[in-house]
Amino acid sequence: MNLRPHHFILWALFIAGMLLMPELVGRGTLRTMIFACYLAIFAISWDILSGRTGYISFGHPFLVGIGAYTTAILTRRYGFPVEASIPIAVLVTMFGGLIVLLPALRIKGSYFALVTLAVMELMYQLVPVIRPDLTGGTRGISRLPALTRGAENGYYLAVSLMLAVALFAWLLMRTRLGTALWAIGQNEESVRGSGLSTTRLKSFAFLVSAAVAGLGGAFYAHYLGTITPRAFFDINVLFQIIVAVLIGGAGTILGPIIGAFFMVFLLEWLRPFLPGQERFFVYGAIALLIYMYQPKGIMAIIDSGVARLRGAKT
Amino acid sequence: MLQIIIQGLLLSGLYALIAMGFMLIFSIGRTLNLAYGAYIMVGGYIYFWLSQQLGLPKLIGFAGAVAVGAIMGLLKHRLIVKPLKGDAVAVEISTLILAVIMQSAVVLVFGDASKILLPIIPGVVTISGAQVTYNILAATLMSWIIILALYAFIRGTHTGRAMQAVSMDQKGAAISGVDPDRINMITWAISGGLGAAGGVFFASYTQLSPNMWVAPVIISVAIVIVGGIGSIIGTLIVAHIIGFLEIIIVAVWAPELRGVFTMLLIIGVLIVRPQGLFGREEH
């Protein structure tokens, strides 16, 4: 991607718009946006690994969940301050991902997806059983310390975290490393042929992805105030993360953000008509159509639209 | 002890049936059909709707479930798998989305609450101290009949052999005069029908709920991967290993740990021996 001045202007406008949002919309919309920001963070995390290298992770809720559970257990059970528990949660997520999922990176394609799916399901079944005194069993842990009070502050926190993560991912992908990761997704054999260690590259992508997921999960847990196994290690969470990336556009920075906001707001608008889980019917149908018609997502649709407009002008 | 053996055999037969339909698709297209669970769920719900809500004869309910499952299989192949032209990642993702769509469609039509399926055949029989319902006995017998019929079909008929050929080498099969497209369609239809039939039995074993599809998919995946892709015998053996493991764990340990060993088995085998215990080498 070549950087032009108008890109900076657009980003500045986007960031300014995001920061002005609390002045423009009500509390309820703000809460929806907070959720969208966290979903965007998880989506960026998924995209760093799966969107670039093509190794589809079905276990991302597992990483998000470790981050959330670590900080919850540390603050509620051992009285750690939040400032200490969140960095620890990030480290634990990286470590947990490392021992469980790194062996899985040796295996390819569908099998990697399967192992990660099995890991997520394993956690869902294990968390309520093993040490319920720590994890709170199926009821989870409640009354977590909050980071800020009020929707407005929560919104600023979520937006700045999302923008920081996006900036970090963007910087990372501009290095040669980002190019190499993308190349793995295109043709892993030829990357190995050119003398790079694909294992090391994949492990690195995985660690970064885990760190971002853990960070997002930890902040999200403190925002929610309660966590349960169902809210994290669940196939619907996985669905939301993956669909956010795919709808927006995999392999881009803005794509997962657009996808997350699109997804969360569509679900919110559907709520008056379909209050429960039925909303996913409409949502899933739209997601499937976009995916079948344009696998590169909304980003590509916008790009081709812009190109068509430009073409019409000249 | 006897109780464990009987229950293990019954559950394993059911698992073998469910895994069989998944195995067909996985061995032919190498496509991870995550929406396979949707056949199971839809099969159960169609049977429930026809036989319990409309009050039609049970046989019609069962036939209706299998027919809808087969049609779903065909549609999925036509509308999703074929246009994606064997892109494994795209198929995985789109079938995951489809599974969630089907789950919410069921919520839309039948509501969120789980439903109890009346036993297909009511009554209880006591086999040397172990209580077994006729319902589960019938389900297991039917599962075995279907599995044996499928085995005979794959081994004995021209179409069945063509399916085997396509699963081993699509191009080679095409050169020797097999139409892979037609075979694929037949396979998807059979897989859908098998899944729906398994779903009727599975639902009568547990109950109907909108998220009942997740566990059978993971169990099928585990059985097929561990058993080795394309190996019917491997599938049968591993279905029994997993069925017995679950029964033993529930009986002597804790019911909550039921699925844990299935997950550990699939993770362990995939990492150590990705081609499965009884599978042939992939190239």
From TrEMBL, chain A:
State what protein this is by name: Branched-chain amino acid transport system permease protein
Q: Which domain of life is it from?
A: Bacteria
Q: Which organism is it from?
A: Sulfitobacter noctilucicola
Q: Is Nucleotide-binding one of the keywords?
A: no
> Recorded GO terms, molecular function?
branched-chain amino acid transmembrane transporter activity
- An example Gene Ontology CC term for this record: plasma membrane
Cross-referenced InterPro entries:
ABC_transp_permease (IPR001851), LivM-like (IPR043428)
Provide the alphabetized UniProt keywords: Cell membrane, Membrane, Transmembrane, Transmembrane helix
Q: Where in the cell is it found?
A: Cell membrane
Keyword Cytoplasm applies: no
Q: Which PANTHER family match?
A: HIGH-AFFINITY BRANCHED-CHAIN AMINO ACID TRANSPORT SYSTEM PERMEASE (PTHR30482), HIGH-AFFINITY BRANCHED-CHAIN AMINO ACID TRANSPORT SYSTEM PERMEASE PROTEIN LIVM (PTHR30482:SF20)
Q: How does it sit in the membrane?
A: Multi-pass membrane protein
UniProtKB/TrEMBL annotation, chain B:
This protein's species is: Sulfitobacter noctilucicola
How does the record classify its membrane topology? Multi-pass membrane protein
Query: Which residues are listed as membrane-spanning?
Result: 6-26, 33-50, 56-75, 87-111, 131-154, 185-205, 211-229, 236-254, 260-278
Task: Output a single Gene Ontology CC term carried by this record.
Answer: plasma membrane
User: Which lineage is the organism of this entry classified under, starting from the top rank?
Assistant: Bacteria, Pseudomonadati, Pseudomonadota, Alphaproteobacteria, Rhodobacterales
Q: Is Metal-binding one of the keywords? A: no
GO BP, one example?
amino acid transport
What is the protein's name according to its record? Branched-chain amino acid transport system permease protein
Tell me which InterPro entries the record gives.
ABC_transp_permease (IPR001851), BCAA_transport_permease (IPR052157)
What compartments host this protein?
A: Cell membrane
Main localization of the protein described in the UniProt heading = membrane
- Give this protein's Gene Ontology molecular function annotations: transmembrane transporter activity
Q: Which family is this sequence assigned to? A: Belongs to the binding-protein-dependent transport system permease family. LivHM subfamily.
Keyword terms? Amino-acid transport, Cell membrane, Membrane, Transmembrane, Transmembrane helix, Transport
| A Pfam family per the record | BPD_transp_2
